[in-house]
Specification:
Helix content is 21%, strand content 34%. It is of the alpha+beta class and 121 residues long. It has a single domain, classed as Ribosomal Protein L22, Chain A (Alpha-Beta Complex).
Length: 121
C-alpha cells in the first residue's frame, strides 16, 4: 500500500517516505516498500518544453505538448525519488512503464512504487 496524504504525521509507522510540493499543495507518500512521488500543477507554464524534453528525457519519451512534458516530468521525478538518486542519474534514461501519473484535482501526481494507492487528504 502507498498512502498519499497532506498530513506528515500519518507516516510514523512506515519505513519509506517521499515528499513533493508545488504551488498550493504539499503531499507525502508513505509505504512499507520504496516509494517516490512528484506533483505539479497542471497549468504550470513551461517555456521551451521541447528543449527541456530533449535534454532530460529518453528519445522514446515523446513530448508533443506542455501537458506531455509535465506528465513525463512528474514520472521522472517520482522515479528518481524512488531510486533515492539525484535527478542527474536519470537524465536521458527511460522511466519504467509502471511509474504512473494520476490526476489529483488540478495537479499531475507521479507515483513510483508497488501496492495499492490510498489517498487520504
Amino acid at each position: 500500500m502507498i498512502l498519499i496524504t497532506t498530513n506528515p504525521l500519518l507516516g510514523k509507522d512506515y519505513p519509506y517516505s517521499s515528499k513533493s510540493h508545488t504551488r498550493g499543495l504539499e503531499l507525502f507518500a508513505f509505504s512499507q516498500t520504496p516509494v517516490g512521488i512528484d506533483i505539479e500543477k497542471m497549468d504550470r507554464p513551461i517555456k521551451n518544453y521541447t528543449a527541456l524534453a530533449e535534454r532530460f528525457f529518453h528519445p522514446a519519451e515523446k513530448v508533443e505538448s506542455r501537458e506531455d512534458f509535465l506528465k513525463l516530468w512528474v514520472k521522472k521525478e517520482a522515479y528518481t525519488k524512488f531510486l533515492r538518486q539525484p535527478l542527474i542519474s536519470t537524465i536521458g534514461k527511460k522511466v519504467p512503464d509502471d511509474v504512473t501519473v494520476q490526476v489529483f484535482g488540478e495537479y499531475y501526481l507521479g507515483v513510483a512504487g508497488t501496492g495499492e494507492l490510498v489517498i487520504n487528504e
